[in-house]
Amino acid sequence: MSGMVQVAVAGDVAEAEELQEILRNAGIDAALQQAPQDDAVNVLVPEAELETAQDAIEALTEPDELISEP
After folding, report:
1. For residue 37, what pLDDT band results from cuts at 50, 70 and 90?
2. Residue 33's pLDDT is what?
3. Domains of the chain (ranges, CATH numbers)
4. How many whole angstroms separate alpha carbon 22 and alpha carbon 43?
5. 3-state secondary structure of 7
6. Closest Cα to residue 7, out of 37, 39, 36, 41?
7. Cβ distance 63 to 38 under 8 Å?
8. Cβ-count burial 13-25 (b if 16+ within 10 Å, e if not)
9. What φ, ψ does residue 2 adopt, rounded to 5°?
């Protein structure tokens, strides 16, 4: 099984949970991990689903809503 990779960095837990919900609705398992920077939270997905996860996030969010993408 492949490992988890970062698909996005959210500014806070609420934003991370929103992204996690978007991914789960797209059928992608997502996990949250506290980022080293302040309140930021990494959103992780299985490596094999990275591209699909990126597409799902882009399709369902405004580009300026995300702080950064890896």
Report:
1. confident
2. 95
3. 4-65 (3.30.70.1530)
4. 11
5. strand
6. 41
7. no
8. eebbebbbebbee
9. -75, 160
Give me 26's structure tokens.
Answer: 């797209």
Q: Considering all CA atoms of the chain, what is the largest pairwise distance in Å, rounded to the nearest integer?
A: 33
β-bridge mates for residue 46, sequence order: 4
| Average pLDDT value for residue range 43-67 | 83
Cα–Cα distance for residue pair 53/48, rounded to 1 Å: 10
Q: Answer yes or no: are the C-beta atoms of 44 and 65 closer than 8 Å.
A: no
C-alpha gyration radius of the chain: 11
Phi, psi of 21, rounded to the nearest 5 degrees = -65, -40
Task: Return the structure tokens found at 38.
Answer: 């302040």
Dist CA 69 CA 45 (whole Å): 13
Closest-CA residue to 35 (of 13, 18, 2): 13
